[in-house]
Design brief:
The protein is built from 7 helices and 20 strands. It is an alpha/beta fold. It starts with a strand and ends in a 17-residue tail after the last helix.
Length: about 375
């Protein structure tokens, strides 16, 4: 357990080590780079990561670290913990019995807040859908049994109910495809807070129109819990598709939940891909309109604009809203032939994470979800 510079949490808690790349958002995984520094013989990540011609890469081996399980019990001061910053709690290599133990610790330390983030929403839903394992308050027997074995030390929850009020469940969604795949599965899992992390943000995401499984082209608003009719809605389409004008809003009584928090940010580190500033703005505007809390973490390696070409020269790039990138190099500055800002192109320059900063249109966005107690 360690303090962290991650802006939306206080500390990281890693009862697991190791992972596997699963989507485009994993390409420049910061955890692989961190693990590589501690991968020598006798070090914590030995055998879990290896150097390749494309840089560090997970080997796919997962290591359970049971001695780390009780760390939150010894922390008396309430804190926000990012669970498994160096792995994925719902990785296919993690037994459900071990996940039970992680939830047991969270159940008996209600003073803390636990922020879980996964790219494996399907396995998370599988975990929460196990039949015949529910008891008083909806808490699974397996978790209660695991909590009892922890003993009285640190227990400050005298009647845990399901879902745990101090556990936030989230999924990574770097673009619309991953949002469509993961958010509907997330919302079917019980949680006090449902959230997403759009970091690294690699494309535009419309949270007002996320494709819902088994409903064909039907798209729902996961910020409000309903859907927008195709305009004019009398044409008969069940919901407005991506890029179509929206008609009236219809509450969706069958939706199991909606998002309470959205985090977004650009990519940092070696090989970082640029983020179009409008992708972050669009998420901000969607959240503000729906009354959902928004946290902008960073621009990442690339800052908006073409930079100051006086004393210092920056590498620049033009990026389109659809993700196309044209790198201009250090001398030429401008859009590709025929492209303009009116067409959705933007200029960005490689300034570094610190210089690019966290300001979005001149202000920070540090909102956290409100928990209804």
């Amino acid at each position: 357990m360690a303090d962290t510079t991650i802006e939306w949490t206080d500390a990281v808690w890693n009862p697991l080590r190791g992972c596997t790349r699963i989507s485009a958002g994993c390409m420049n995984c910061y955890a692989e780079r961190v693990a590589m520094r501690f991968s020598g013989e006798g070090q914590p990540y030995h055998g879990l990561v290896q150097m390749t011609s494309q840089g560090p890469k997970w080997t796919g081996r997962i290591e359970l670290v049971p001695e780390k399980l009780e760390e939150p019990l010894r922390m008396r001061k309430p804190r926000k913990f990012f669970v498994n910053s160096m792995s994925d709690l719902f990785h296919e290599g993690v037994p459900f019995e071990f996940i039970d133990q992680v939830f047991a610790v969270m159940a008996v330390t209600r003073r803390h807040t636990y922020q879980i983030l996964t790219k494996r929403a399907d396995r998370m839903l599988e975990y929460f859908s196990r039949p015949g394992d529910r008891t008083l308050g909806g808490m699974p027997f397996s978790i209660i049994n695991a909590a009892v074995k922890l003993g009285p030390d640190g227990q400050d929850n005298c009647g845990p109910a399901w879902p745990l009020e101090n556990v936030w469940l989230g999924v990574s969604a770097e673009d619309q495809t991953r949002a469509d795949e993961r958010i509907p599965l997330l919302l079917q899992c019980p949680a006090a807070v449902h959230w997403i992390s759009g970091e690294p943000l690699l494309g535009s995401i419309d949270l007002e129109r996320v494709k819902w499984p088994d409903l064909g082209d039907h798209r729902v608003d996961v910020l409000r819990g309903g859907y927008w009719n195709k305009a004019p809605y009398l044409l008969g389409a069940p919901s407005a598709g991506l890029g179509e004008p929206k008609g009236g809003f219809t509450n969706h009584s069958d939706m199991p939940g909606k998002l309470n928090w959205v985090v977004a940010g650009g990519e940092s580190g070696p090989g970082a891909r640029p983020m179009h500033p409008d992708w972050a703005r669009n998420l901000r505007d969607q959240c503000e309109a729906a009354g959902v809390r928004y946290f902008f973490k960073q621009h990442g390696e690339w800052a908006p604009g073409s930079g100051d070409f006086g004393a210092r020269k920056f590498e620049t790039a033009a990026i389109a809203c659809d993700g196309r990138v044209v790198t201009d190099g250090y001398d030429a500055v401008g859009y590709p032939p025929g492209a303009t800002s009116a067409d959705g192109w933007a200029m960005v320059h490689r300034a570094g994470k610190k210089a690019a900063g966290r300001l979005l249109d001149g202000r920070t966005h540090d909102e956290f979800p409100e928990i209804q107690g």
